[in-house]
TrEMBL record:
Subcellular location: Membrane
InterPro entries xref list: TMEM205-like (IPR025423), Xanthocillin_Biosynth-Assoc (IPR053009)
Major localization class: membrane
Tree of life domain: Eukaryota
Name of the protein in question: TMEM205-like domain-containing protein
Organism: Bionectria ochroleuca (Gliocladium roseum)
Keywords, sorted A to Z: Membrane, Transmembrane, Transmembrane helix
Domain TMEM205-like stretches: 23-118
UniProt keyword Membrane, yes or no: yes
Sequence intervals crossing the membrane: 7-28, 93-110, 157-175
């Protein structure tokens, strides 16, 4: 028992420190902002539709996993007692809970749904038809294609909104963290 407590104390001393926590927070916020507002925008502007869709289908599942991992690391590295310290302060755990909840929804529900719907839309040839014809020349969508587009749009919009809520909650947590640092 004494050995286990000693090991936990050493782990806590190394990982539940201010620098480790700030590094985790910085990595989380930087990853969220860069992927959401820089990389996606650049890829959308530069890549043709098919390669863009293929890239996003591979990048966003990885992004959601990294985001979730960084949120766990952020919670675990909370000074001075890790997760227990986080639970003790409502101003800290509420934004953290919001971030974890929205990231989990994107990781397990809306991210996969969006990817599957995006691939289905692409397989139906909707994306290719959009690239090759002007809006006025397109043939009307049949019901199946329209349903696929609607499914994609709904899931994609939900994923975007959840990601934005997660970013706002991360900023909210950072605001509280900076107040603690200033005092």
């Amino acid at each position: 028992m004494a050995i286990t407590q000693s090991i936990l104390y050493v782990i806590q001393s190394i990982f539940c420190t201010g620098p480790a926590h700030l590094l985790c927070y910085s990595a989380l916020l930087g990853t969220e902002l860069y992927q959401s507002f820089v990389m996606t925008k650049i890829c959308f502007l530069v890549l043709p539709r098919k390669p863009f869709i293929a890239l996003q289908a591979r990048v966003f599942p990885v992004y959601f996993r990294i985001q979730s991992l960084l949120l766990v690391l952020l919670a675990v590295t909370t000074p001075s007692h890790g997760l227990l310290s986080l639970i003790g302060r409502k101003s800290s755990w509420v934004p953290m809970l919001v971030s974890v909840g929205t990231a989990a929804l994107n990781l397990f529900l809306y991210g996969p749904r969006t990817s599957r719907a995006m691939i289905s839309v692409q397989q139906q040839g909707i994306a290719a038809a959009d690239d090759q014809t002007e809006l006025s020349e397109r043939e009307p969508l049949n019901q199946e294609k329209a349903a696929l587009r609607k499914k994609f749009s709904k899931n994609h919009a939900m994923s975007i909104h959840l990601n934005l809520i997660s970013i706002i909650a991360t900023l909210w947590y950072g605001w509280g963290l900076s107040i603690k640092l200033a005092t």
